[in-house]
Design a protein that fits this description.
mainly alpha; rod-shaped; 1 helix
Length: 39
């Protein structure tokens, strides 16, 4: 595997990975807020 090619692919995927990570984190926060309301 060419390291330069791999790093280029990684930088293209980085924004998508960040986007998914932020969505998952915000969903977890929303879930905890909902749990607080239920109790």
């Amino acid at each position: 595997m060419n390291i330069i090619y791999f790093s280029l692919r990684l930088t293209k995927l980085a924004p998508f990975i960040l986007f998914v990570g932020v969505n998952v984190a915000s969903r977890k926060e929303e879930n905890t807020e909902l749990d607080k309301c239920h109790t």
